[in-house]
Design goal:
The structure is a single chain. The protein is an alpha/beta fold. The chain has 15 helices and 13 strands. Strands 1-9-8-5-4-2-3 form a 7-stranded mixed β-sheet, with helices on both faces. Strands 10-11-13-12 form a 4-stranded antiparallel β-sheet. The radius of gyration is 21 Å and the shape is globular.
Amino acid sequence: MIPLIKNAFLNEIETKKLLADFIIKAPRLSMSEQCFEFEKEFSEYQGASHSILFNSGSSANLAMIQALLNLGKLSKGDKVGFSALTWSTNVMPIIQLGLIPVPIDCEPLTLNVMSSQLLQRLNDTELKAFFITNALGFSGDLTKIKSICDEKNIILLEDNCESLGTEIDENKTGNFGLMSSCSFFVAHHMSTIEGGMVCTNNYELAVMLKIVRANGWDRNLDAEDQNMLRKKFNIKSEFDAKYTFYDLGYNLRPTEITGFLGRNQLKLLEHNILKRNENHAALEPLVKDNPDLLTLNHEHLKRMSSFSFTVVCKTKELRQFYVSQFLGAGVELRPVIAGNMQAQPFYKKYVKDYFDLPGTQFIHDCGFYFGNYPELTSSDLQTLKSCLIKR
């Protein structure tokens, strides 16, 4: 069988040995220096001013929306656009926190919202924010999308959980929005088992994200920010400050295990991306030669950071055929993220407005993906190639 992922980490055995040794020797395992050092190192890699570590990518998404509400940059009842092809916990915080979700269609050839589709939605709906998903190693034309959002005063957020390392127009995805989220769940570009990050260049948001992450208190803020808050709210002693809560928050803190693994796997990230891209380049010609399949477009990207290998068939019937072909060869498959989000049971329960999303529905009906990771062997690649050939 070719599973979706073979190992939890790159260099699995060595990493587990290092982790075991770290756990034995670590003075504490709750959030501390390993987490803070990982934040600094990730900021350097991403090219962002601030990185705030969370216990998952989903928590990172929740914290971004809560931070915007806490600072008054969003208000309950505001309409927030989102990529219709996305993950559940991109949309759930919008609903949970009293905002109105508005799906924006995706282009089948890029798997992402393009600027033309954003403009089409803006013709009939005024948005306060747009939470875009950079799906499966690809992205839309983010430079144009950012320009539209800047012009119309729309807050742009990015879910970069599946496109870490992708580059467009001399910049990395995740650097176009006011904030972006990243996930370190197993099978992503780098794994801390569970874990996530928010990146931003906005200092005010970075401070609020730390407050949101840890119960609403100030314990993990710099002394200057602590003093400012305590003065504003007339907190007169360190003793009182221990259990003073300044705004709405959660317990979304990571552990030192997350920080340690993040620092370890970050060193291997570029190798991971290069191997994934080599695999993708080896498989893509088979798609181009098969008239049953669509060739996905990544020409607008300076570099694609392949998350998985996505197959989009030209009809539902062809998808059924190719899914059977892959499964018969022992290849583990997945739908293309959550498909058309409007079809999900939770969405139907809480959201009544329905939008026509032809591109997303096509991907929903005709697409699937299989795993792409450095541990794929030459034999694995031959099996995958054989499944992509027209019969």
